[in-house]
Amino acid sequence: MGASGAGKSTLLALLAGLDEPTTGSIRLAGSELTTLDEDGRAAVRARHVGFVFQSFHLLPSLTALENVMLPLELAGRGDARKTALEVLGRVGLGGRVGHYPRQLSGGEQQRVAIARAFVTEPDVLFADEPTGNLDAATGERIMDLLFGLNTAVGATLVLVTHDRTLASRCGRIIRLDAGRIVEG
Amino acid sequence: MTVAALRFAWRNLLRDLKSGEIAVLLLALLVAVASLTAVGFFTSRVGRAVNQQAGEVLAADLRLESARPIDAVYDREASRRGLRVARVLSMPSVVFHGEESTLVALRAASEGYPLRGRLKIADQPFGPGRATDGIPGPGEAWADSRLLARLGAAVGTRLAVGAHEVVVTRVLDYRPDQGAGFGDLSATLLINIDDVPATQLIQPGSRVNRAVLFAGDPGAVSDFREYLEAHRKQGERLQAVADASPQIRASSDRAGRFLSLASLVSVLLSSIAVAMAARRYASRHLDNVALMKCMGASQGFVLQQTIAQLVAVAVIVTLAGTAIGYVAQSGIAWLLRDLIRGDLPAPAADAFWLGLVTAVVILVGFALPPLLQLKRVPPARVLRRNLEPPPLRFALVYGLAIGAVLALLYWLVRDARLVSYVAAGIGGTFVVLALAGWLLVRLLNPLRSGVGVAWRYGLANIARRGRDSVVQIVAFGLGFMVLLLLALVRDDLLKEWRASLPADAPNYFMINIRPDEGDAIRTFFAGRGLPPTELVPLVRARLTAINGVPVDRIAFSSSRAAGFIEREANLTWARTLRDDNRLLAGRWWRDGDGGGARVSVEKEYAETLGLELGDTVTYDVAGEEVSARVTSLRDVRWDSFQPNFFMVFSPGVLDDVTGTLITSVHVEAGQRPALVDLVRQFPEVTIIDIDALLTQVRDVMDKAALAVQYVFLFTLAAGLMVLLAAVQATRDERRYESAMLRTLGASRSVVFKGVAAEFAALGLLAGLLASAGATVAGFFLAREIFNLTYAPDPTVWIVGIGGGALLVGAAGLLAARSVVTQPPVATLRQTQ
User: How far is CA A12 from CA A20, A38, A112, A182, in A?
Assistant: First the structure.
């Protein structure tokens, strides 16, 4: 948790190996990220990590199904279509798999993003303000889905938020201020 | 390359195709490939025709040619050696059908002609041809379809040839020695050589070309060639197949190169469109790639799948583009059908490789650099949108593009010097046009304060997207300019030139007049009310030496000079300088000045042969050597249509030589029957209708111009691709702006008008540039080439500017329509 500019997204980027720290070291799923080059870090992400973003980051030119298939295709999995359809069914979008992101509501788009994050059954799931762009009621349903799936898959969820109720559902809270950990 | 990357690339490509993301890139590439392969297929057909016919281009293995009668001793010697022999005689002449007359290339052949290749005949003009082994019998003639059409004659018609009459029994479709590729202007009339005496066309000094043809097995032919080399007389020229075909090949290669260069303009413009589309594609995909990397895709994977996609695009476009090019080439062949003698064989597959090379070169040179950026997108961009990949090195982007263009240029012309000229020419033109375009865009700004909101919005857009606007203006301007130049300015120049001729300028040349008939001709003219005429002597001779050095030991730089040496020259002599000649250097002679044998040379002829004042030229005139000193250089107004000559000798030098007389005369339409009587009375006189000749020349120019215009239609298509790419590149921006404008209260029609105004103004500027360019080119051509004063034609400006505004306005509106029609709420919600 933390106010805007506290360094939440930077920390997330470092934890996921999207960025490199100037000093110190980061271990993720048994790999020392700071000793790896960009492609090495990408390989770690491919094996262990899932993402959910505030602005969903769906590819506008791909359908819901194609968006969910993407990480499986990147991993070279042959059953991409079947697995993606199954996960989309679990997030309640079984009837809208052929729709493009622009044809979906905000909540539906985030559900596609969640399906995409879980489809590879990651060990760690990073979520950056996943309800930031949603109204309260939709946000709540999305969080139920996220926590539910997380429990089912058994992943570690790293959640960035400034919503206290949301934070209270987590096992551990780290509070940031001006780039420093002030609590947790 | 991993299988995963390949599969991923393929799926990605299919998705991009479906969503239209790479439509413009594909289309632009398609235009480039289609334009080059269309020309490539066509030139390959002409090239194959040339190669196929190269073996029969002489209608023999050896051909001995002379302007004078050839001794029958050669025929006997050849027969003795087991070679086949035939004789051919050709000369320009006039044939009559009632009162209709036309100039023909009269050919008379003996039994056995052609010795190599076969004649093709048809029963009806332009009917299907079939091969034959015969020749016309005595009293018969085979006529070219064009000849029959010109005379309004048909098979069965009787034609007057000199003093003789022949019946057209067949249509002559093809003869092996007509020359492959682009043929000559006159239509052929083929008769039996035994009919020649009856025509009375051959008189001492007549312009007749005689040839003996020989063919047989290679050993005998090569032995006989040595015999002929040793025994042939002065003025007898020996040709073997190996000597003749390179010339023909060279002329068809030149035409092919010219068309290829014309199509290269479309390729350049398409490449710009490809670069714009690739840039847009890359920037649209920055987020996607960042996300892919976030999900674990490596740099190598991104690079591999990018390259795999490019390869797939190259293959798809090559297949589709060459297919379009194949269809389009038949258009060029159809437009040039009358200029191409004989049937064109089917095109070779080489043009497919040309298509592939074009696609690959453009993709590597123009699309690869922006796509390489994708590899270097930082994955943290998923969290912070402002993270961009490091910029590409300037040298890499432009170096690749310029290298690609030069490589393609070299592949097309295979001549490093020509490549450097053309590259400089293209570069210069682009720079000038781009500067002019930039200036025009700048000039628009002050206009904005004086127009309504829609126009202001449109004009503001042009200025804001300055660089893209200039590219579009140049792209369309170039295409329009060439079309205006070929369609309108060319026509104006011809009209101006015609108007500059006096109304009583001669419209008929008469050649082959026997010297002893000069007085009879004068009397005939006076009796039929024709203007009094000046009969000028004409002597045929061959240049043998300059300053005592034989011409075959002089290295002439130009092929034109070689042609002058090759052909027999027309010489004359005169006491006084004609009104349409102007002395540039040296002095004219006076009677009895005792200066000896002198000659006055036309300026350009002197330059071509490298002749200067004081040089001595030696001619072989009917076996006699005649030498004279160059004492003056002249400028000649050829379009006075008076008998004029490159070489005018002083009186006395050519007195003893038998030549002919030549004259030109203005004949009113009502006096034309007199010409029919003239030919009946003086059958050896050949009448050349200048009007008909000019019409023929014009006809050829029209067709060649049409073919070039056709190739430049691809340039307009390429311009359209640049426009599409530009619209696509600004689509998101436009969508957002249009939503903002409408949120602020602008009606849909105002936004629509703004877009229309923007593109109409762009088209207007392109038209302005094109009209100005075409007019300047017209001025230049008129002054430097035709010596005319060119009055600018308002039609050029009206058509250029109006057409430009209309075409570009409509195309732009169509392309940008969807952006405007989208409801603003949807747009604003998306861009949040």
Answer: 11, 16, 21, 17
Closest among A109, A107, A116 to A84, alpha carbons compared: A116
Contacts of A71 in chain B (CB under 8 A): 295-296
Q: Could you tell me which residues are beta bridge partners of residue B104?
A: B93, B187
pLDDT value at position B78? 93
Token digits of residue B113: 């002609």
Contact B296 A66 (CB under 8 A): no
ipTM of the complex: 0.77
DSSP-assigned beta bridge partners for residue A42? none
According to DSSP, residue A20 is labeled -
CA-based nearest residue to B32, from B384, B335, B344, B321: B321
Taken in order B96, B97, B102, B105, is the CA torsion positive or negative? negative
Mean pLDDT of B96-108: 84
Instruction: Residue B710: name the closest of B413, B541, B498, B479 by CA.
Output: B479
Q: What are the distances in angstroms from CA B762 to CA A154, B526, B710?
A: 61, 65, 24
- Three-class SS state of B647: strand
User: CA of B346: how far to CAs of B52, B333, B349, B572, B710, in Å?
Assistant: 12, 11, 9, 49, 20
- pLDDT class for B623, splitting at 50, 70, 90? confident
Contact B256, B4 (CB under 8 A): no
Q: How far is the C-alpha of B370 from the C-alpha of B283, rounded, in Å?
A: 8
Q: How many residues does chain A have?
A: 184
Instruction: Output B114 or B504, whichever has higher pLDDT.
Output: B114
Probe site for chain B from A59, A77, A108 (most B CB atoms < 10 A):
A59
Phi then psi dihedrals of residue B61, to 5 deg: -90, -35
Say if residue B182's pLDDT is above 60: no
Q: Does A36 touch chain B (CB under 8 A)?
A: no
Percent of chain B with pLDDT over 90: 21
The helix/strand/coil state of A127 is: strand
B294, A102: Cβ pair inside 8 Å? no
